[in-house]
Specification:
232 residues, alpha/beta, D-Maltodextrin-Binding Protein, domain 2, 2 domains, five-stranded mixed beta sheet, 10 strands, elongated
Amino acid sequence: MKDLRMSITFLLIGFAVVLLYASAGLSQEAYPTRPVTFIVPFPPGGSTDLGYRLLTKETEKHLGQPIVVVNKPGGGGTVGVSAIATAKPDGYTIGQTPSGGFLAIMPHMEKIPYHPIKDLKYIMQFAELNFAVLVKADSPFKSFKDLITFARQNPKKLTYGTNAPNSISNLIMEQVAKKEGVQLTHIPFKGSAEYQTALLGGHVLFTIGEFNYSYLEGGQARVLLFLGEKHS
């Protein structure tokens, strides 16, 4: 388990949530003079979406202009970030992107229409997210070891959900599967709200990634493993 924690920690180094925007021309006029669009590259209802909706409501009080939150899910976040990167660089289209694994891995795994460093300007880190392995509250799996044991006895029958193919969560589980010599079935979704709904509906046996604490507090889901060196 120590080696597992080390592997997970290595893959999660640098993971953080940041705001971004392009700033050309902002000094030429007072800013902002009209509503600002804020792009969240994940579906509504996830922890990322909810967090930024709270942030934008508070920010509106200081800007004096509305901030319109627009969800553009897909591609593990790349669809929404593409919309930010290709928008007019006047500061009226801003948004969010996960950093760390997203910035380091995705450009090498998939063809994306922007450069994660050259085409974006990062202005703020808002939060760090806890990643975990979750099961339904009534799941027979009581530990992460139980999952591996089941997978070893039932090749490809252990299904799990993440927010995208080649996402940091997907890569972590594939690394674990390779090390343990088991075969898993990955089912990708557009964001945490979708894969958590699938978990509660019994469509996947576990999920790995960010999650809403309300599911734990409400007794709907259980954490088997936090992805990090320290306890949450």
